[in-house]
Design goal:
The model has no long low-confidence stretch (mean pLDDT 94). The chain is of the alpha/beta class and 308 residues long. The strands form five sheets. Strands 5-6-7-8-11-12 form a six-stranded mixed β-sheet, with helices on both faces. The chain has a four-stranded parallel β-sheet with strand order 13-14-15-16, sandwiched between helices. A hairpin with a 2-residue loop joins strand 11 and strand 12. The chain is globular and about 60 Å long. The protein has two domains: 186 residues, Rossmann fold; 106 residues, 3-Layer(aba) Sandwich (Rossmann fold). Helices cover 28% and strands 19% of the residues. The structure holds succinic acid. Succinic acid binds next to loops.
């Protein structure tokens, strides 16, 4: 399933890696340009569907809903072994987490991407597609995964950590789930695979415009309570605070968050730290184990969907 991104991006010059337009080539066009695709498929058939065509910084809930609905459709087919999704790198981790929460399946769903546009002298998209196909065809592959620069990441841990280099993703302390080397998948430890979220199925049917409104609020030096008050006045249903260190929150924000909670807004705290997770019991309820604020936003939104 194609959704756009740099992998489908084009630039005026082959030397240009930054001034390009994402989401220009269709997914079939992309695949037609991947050398060795037939060998990678080893006789399996690849069916393509263009689900969206956007720069993933502009990803929205309506597109997520269509992606999930089409995912459910394809995964239900007995002869479909798994799905590869081409996606922009900027919000790939959020889409991966959303799908992980929603798709009740043991079949693999592998998101892949590129840091260089398709028109680059040496694009990284084709190799990432070949690697994603190797992963989706691997009998040990389960759940929602991301494949980039030869590394396999879980939806839970993957995070974009670099704005430019080809190996732009990390799984932090958890480390990658595995590697793809010359078309061969090497898992660190297949371990326990995450399960879907209890309420997430609701996101398949409920109009995206009605999904509970949840925002991320950063806590930082000089933080101002007015951002929280403004969101509450505008009707926000949930707030995830990107807290400092071990889930601490600037005192100015704290007062406004307590007020928001009193008014029925669900408040969770995540940490701004790139690694580790909140230890102990901060005064605010913590985001689910180790999720960054943006994935915690997805989880809280799905939680609240189950409560209406
Ligand atoms: C995007 O996220 O769609 C653009 C950036 C990228 O794919 O690297």
């Amino acid at each position: 399933m194609g959704t756009g991104g740099t992998i489908a991006g084009t630039a005026a010059s082959a030397a240009d890696h930054t001034a390009y337009t994402a989401g220009q080539l269709g997914v079939q066009q992309l695949l037609d340009a991947v050398p060795g695709l037939g060998d990678a498929l080893q006789g399996d058939q690849l069916v393509c569907e263009q689900v969206a065509q956007l720069d993933s910084k502009d990803m929205d809930h309506a597109t997520w809903q269509v992606l999930a609905q089409r995912g459910v459709h394809w995964l239900a087919q007995a002869d479909v072994g798994g799905i590869v999704i081409t996606h922009g790198t900027d919000t790939l981790e959020e889409t991966a987490w959303f799908l992980q929460m929603l798709l009740h399946t043991h079949k693999p769903v592998v998101l892949t991407c590129a840091m260089r546009p398709a028109t680059a002298l040496s694009p990284d998209g084709p190799q990432n597609v070949i690697d994603a196909i190797a992963v989706v065809r691997d009998p040990m592959a389960r759940g929602v995964l991301a494949v980039c620069a030869g590394r396999i990441h879980s939806a839970r841990d993957v995070q974009k950590v670099h704005p430019y280099r080809l190996d732009a993703f990390s799984s932090g302390e958890a480390g990658p789930r595995g590697w793809v080397e010359q078309g061969v998948v090497r898992w660190t430890d297949p371990g326990a695979w995450p399960v879907a979220h209890a309420h997430a199925q609701l996101a398949l049917g409920q109009p995206a415009a009605d999904w509970p409104w949840v925002e991320v609020v950063p806590s930082h030096a000089g933080a101002d309570a007015r951002q929280v008050d403004a969101l509450v006045a505008a009707g926000v249903k949930g707030l995830v605070v990107a807290g400092t260190g071990n889930g601490t929150v600037h005192q100015a924000l704290w007062v406004a968050l307590a007020r928001a909670q009193d008014q029925g807004v669900a408040v969770r705290v995540a940490t701004r730290c790139a690694e580790g997770q909140i230890v102990g019991q901060p005064a605010l309820q913590t985001a689910p184990r180790g999720l960054n604020a943006y994935k915690a936003r997805v989880s809280l939104m799905l939680d609240l969907m189950g409560q209406v």
